[in-house]
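pinning this so it doesn't scroll away 📌
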Amino acid sequence: MKYITFKPNYDKFPVVRINENFEITHGIDMIVRHILSHHDKHISIETYPGVDTSELIHAFENIDLKYDVIDTSLYSIGYDAYKKLFEREFTEDRVFGFKTSKSIHDLFNIPDNLNYHKPTIIIGFGASLFSHDVLYYASIKRFEHQLRMRSGMPNYMMMNEDEDPLTKYKRSYFVEWVIADRLRVQLTNHIDYIIDWNDIKNPKMMHYQHYQGVLKHLTKRPFRMVPYFDPGVWGGQWLKEVCQLDKSKENYAWSFDGVAEENSILFKVHEIEIEFQAQELIFEYPVEVLGEHVFKYFKYHLPIRFDLLDTMEGQHLSLQVHPKSKYIKEVFGMPYTQDESYYILDAGDDSQVFLGFKEDLDKNTFEEELKASLKTKSFQAEKFVNTFPVKKHEHLLIPAGTIHCSGRNTLVLEISSAAYIFTFKLWDWNRLGLDGKPRPVYHEHGLKNLDYSRTTNYVKSHYINPFKSINRHLEKSGIDHGTFLDAYRISIYNELQFTFKNTVQMANLVEGKSIIVSSLDRSFEDITIHYAETFIIPANVKEVKFTCLDGHCKIMYAEVKSEWLKLSY
């Protein structure tokens, strides 16, 4: 092995096994039969954006029905009104929009006197708004929706099959998913049956109370989400080996297995696999997962995000900056910004991180040469920005406003707050994206957010390896005094009993082949976590025992600062 000394054991499809007697119906034909079994009832089938309802509508239309079938789009406000309604949110930008405050009710004109002449089946986004006796809810994970958009699926109400996937993603991120998630929260405890529609050909359905029972298991134990991996122009080779990915692919740049809004949770019930958005767990059991204080401030959002950035044998990331708190609220409508840190999970001999400005920075010259790079296609980043050599297990803090990027031959565990698309690229080394197009840079946004006071000496004393020993097993590495996250590193020698605070934590095994997480009161079965895997410890789980299977292990975890929450009320 090139990057690890043991056989790779990363689990790409972590499964939560459920032993209770929960019934699952699978296949379109069986689901259609189940829906028709309600006889004279009015049925609504609410769908998350990205669910393809065409086969379901077609299935009903091919049956000699005593039902009427209504596609909700027939009562939508229409294409022109929709575009006008979200003119501010969609913007003309390729990547960035504005988070909408509108709701599902703004998308439809449903007559107050709409009467059904016979039993009716209503299908599509917004179906729950229509009068109904039984409510089905069809869900997919966001990444599956992204893949469908890349393959030509248009956005809701849009005729944009061939539009840039980045722009399609923007429409979903700032409008569709926001509205759908708000609706989903409102529907809690009002759904009768829930459908996993990630597999178009083989959807699976559970009674809603059984589904709640399945999810409730995860409020009592640590758990993993299903990761996904994406290539990138700067991507490397580390993920291929450690995570056992497709070797025929040119590279992998990202591993996402710690983003609740993007990842899913995979269950196995009676040997049948069923998969739901990780967000659904938080919609159903927010306090049990997040903790009372985190829920009070962040509502139905897990505000912590872990991902892996792989440039091993790859290229530098883009030189970039994240927006400051005030800016992201005013310009994009987001409640908080992306403060982050780089934990160096692996490094080559020449590994480095660009971080902060040099002491002798000439601001005017920097800005002039950066702007000119759009025409000259050249920019000497090292002339203005510090480059620090980095080694495995070092930790670098990157609060919003700090110029930065990871250099090549580095494997970064990125620990950050979860406002996760707000990267203003300043310089991208004059390269094209995988789609053959120039990757967008954002000088106007970026220059308004750069903190020029974060220069060499300040960065060295505040942002590089700020570890403070708490005891033999625990070190603290606060992400920054002005941010809401704290990071900790646990060192485990064979076994360790550990007590967490009454709040949600996200963690990653950064050293050691694998570790067993056990319950001290037998409230959950043992869970094995392998090297580089991210896992979540719900607020309900406080005491655990870690058993390292190869003598010495390290875990990095992050949580919301308790003192920050107190100041925010």
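📌 and the second one:
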Amino acid sequence: MKKSILKIISVILSIALVFSVGCTGVSAADTTELPSKEVIGETVTDTAISGIQTIGGLFAGMEELDSGEAFLNNFLKVLYNMLNVLVEVLVQAIRVIYPDPANWKDVAEHSTDAFLEGRNEYKTAADAGNFWSLGYSSRSLIPDDFESGKYYLGRDLMNKKAEGIYDDMRIRAAVLDDNSGDGAVVLAAIDSLGVTSTDVRAIRAGVLDYCKKNGIAVSSINVVSTHAHSALDTQGVSTEFFYKLFASSIQNLLGLEGNLPFMEAPAYFKQYFVEQSIIAINEALDDMESGSLYYDTIDASEYIKDKRGLVSKEDIPEFASLYFVPDSGSESTYITDITCHPTSFSAGNGLVASDYIYYIDQYIKAQEGANFVMIQGACGQISRDNIDVDTTGMDEWEEKGAGTKFLGEKFGEYIISAEYETELEPIINAHHEEILVTPENSILALACEVNLVNNQVYYLEDGVGIISEIGYLEFGNKVGFALFPGELYPEVFWGHEIIGNTTWDGSDWEYSSLNNSVEGVDVYCVNLANDALGYVLTDDNFAFMGHIIGEGIADEVLSVGKHTGSYFVSNYLALLEDYVK
């Protein structure tokens, strides 16, 4: 906690902005399961009413008072914890006054029509006659009337309308099948900050309808976000917050449903990217051809760093990459789990861009004529390292994207130059479970009340909740992907040791690396899978406005909550215990 006085001032000033920072589709979470299922994980024990910390919690993790600096650090820590309480009280007060939307339902009305549990049986050997097949499709998600200037970039609450297009914003969809008859698996990645479960399920519903009409068996449909920070707003969080705050209160009070007046363009874009995503996945389903599937890992830590300085180069997670080679000799396909923020452009950038993802795609196409799908790993604060690019002779436009082009081409070079010596047997395992997240710090509930995000909210016996999901995919009994609906910090998945067991409240994180959570399988994290619920960090490093605090602590107001890490992980491990037998 250096530069302490400046940070105190920063925190106090930030209280006025807490809603604009916090309403990005996030909340804190009580560890509540769906009513029909066993509650997994421990009940919250170190919080009081709706996430307000107890007196003991305010003073947790104090340093030994052996110096003046230690005293000041402890004082600031208590101050930050108290501010957390203050913000919660303020948000709760607003929530009491603010009317609920008319479309909130009782949890008993929840429908699982667009939820797929995956495959029923975990298989350890390929059935006779199994073989790999894969289909691919990619479509731009930029509307034809983009030049009208009415569409918003999806980054924080900046209300910034897109001024132009630097590269593209796309959905890239791959469908894999082992042809066992148990149904294909869809992996579709959307260049976006995040996609809510409501829109994911709308996409699923369209694909399932197509599959039903065409007799296609599908067991798992996954829509993930690449977390590109300069894509168009797919959630609604960057669209006229103060207008929504006022207009939604009137609409909710009158019991009206539907889109707010003057919000036609954002409503149209949501409909547009959902429809284009359905088309892309359906095209991939029609594009299936047989081939072989290979696997390798990639060390790209040379160009990646943890902005907090907590994860060393040696502990930066490797990429997992699948490589499909069709029997026909047509276009091959790479599916790569990359752990790195796509944030090469500044927050004030007014141009639509998918960042390094676009340049990986272009590089692989230019070098091999191959397809590419990128899925985002547990990125937390993992971002590109400082890249020194020679911009001599470049014009202003080229120079603007020189760094991200360099990074994308380097990643592309790593991907296509990997050995891929491990050939995978045609075996797919897939399983998904629904989970119920209930707002503990009230921010997500307020965001839903204001219509900043369109997550479906349900009334419970005590409070409200949002249904999300976790999942697990496995290919060839060798490589697996753990699917989480938030943006995990790497230590949540890879173990607390990679950050030197740094702790904010003095407690311990009980889970080791999940990379070996299935015996004999290399398991990797997939962020923002089938929902977007903000930061997920280890319980012991949950703190208020961590970017201001510094010292490697994450933002509480941008997190689903203190216990979300353990809640997600415990549910994931329970899913495996039930499925992998």
